[in-house]
Amino acid sequence: MKMGIGNKTNAYHGITSTGAQFWNSFPKGVEGDVLPRLHKRLEELKDMADDPRKIAQDYIDSIDAKCKHQIQAQTESEDLIDFESFDLGDIENLIDDMFLSNDCEQNLIYRILKADLKEHCQLLEHPKIIDKLQEHLKQQYMDCATGRFIKFDSAMAQTCHDLEKNEVFYPKFPDGVELIVYRGPTANSNTVDVYINRHLPNEPHDIGTIKMSPQGLKHSLSDCDGDRMAIALSSDFPHTAEEIKQKQLKENRYSEIVKPDKKEYKGSFEQIALDAMENKIGIVANLCMKGIALETSVSQFQPRKSRNSSKIFLALR
């Protein structure tokens, strides 16, 4: 018998966007926690719209945040950029490629912009750079519209049998604090919960992981094959944390989600590759999101207006 061993992904600390699928389930959290941040972010975007230097700095900050786990101490041994060997076509192709990269180490334009902002800002006059920075600004407005501008921590889920079902072990945050933890995509609020962060003195500090009890993993419909959890301090999102707790009460929970057992792929390797390219992850969650959005809208109606909508509301439950 031959066995192949592969590494799906390495454990690392990162950040993840939340988005409409998550916030759709927590309208009170949106009102109390998201809207103040949204107003602030929109003011920032408005302020930078006519200043390429500020847009470039925002782009750099966004890459820094995404790659924070990869950034090492700055040294003088970084590869030097040989500008003399570039022609105009090389530079324009490079700009196209590098603006698609989120990797600080490989993103040459990120490094050039970072250096340029400290000196004469000459690169910001290049038409291609101007276009790409405008694309970045446009994407920031899009993220504001969808809620993706709200970022949570991200770490790989691992099992720990010394934790209670309502506890997690995430050394990055203090012992005893409450954490919002979930795995995306979320079909509804059932799999989003508030846990107590419990530091275990004898548990290894595996960098880039969050330890959860077997019950906690099951509750979040997660397993330990590379699933990454989104994590945030409840104190940073108090209205959302309180709403999550209310949604976890027995009378407020949706019908339980049954996660089917994984099945082996059948067919040729080529067919397996083609099926994997379709990436159907999140389709069911998106359909559920539409239903929950309708439910939330109905619940906001005045009683005299919602009579005709009661059947829809009950059907969604």
Our count of domains comes out at 3
Uncertain stretches: 71-81, 312-316
User: What profile does the largest beta sheet have?
Assistant: 6 strands, mixed, barrel
Order of helices and strands: EHHHHHHEEEEEHEHHHHH
CATH-level-2 architecture of the largest domain? Beta Barrel
Determine the number of helices (DSSP H or I, runs of at least 4 residues).
12
How large a portion of the residues is in β-strands, by DSSP E? 5-15%
Helix content: 40-55%
The CA-CA distance between the termini, in Å, is: 49 Å
Helix and strand content put the structural class at: alpha+beta
Strand order of the largest sheet: 2-6-3-5-4-7
Summarize model confidence as the mean pLDDT. 82
Query: The CATH topology of the largest domain, please?
Result: Barwin-like endoglucanases
Task: Write up what this structure looks like.
- The protein is α+β, with helices and mostly antiparallel strands and 317 residues long.
- The protein has three domains: 98 residues, no CATH class; 104 residues, Barwin-like endoglucanases, CATH 2.40.40.20; 50 residues.
- Helices cover 43% and strands 11% of the residues.
- It has a six-stranded mixed barrel.
- α2 packs antiparallel against α6.
- The termini are far apart.
- The C terminus is likely disordered.
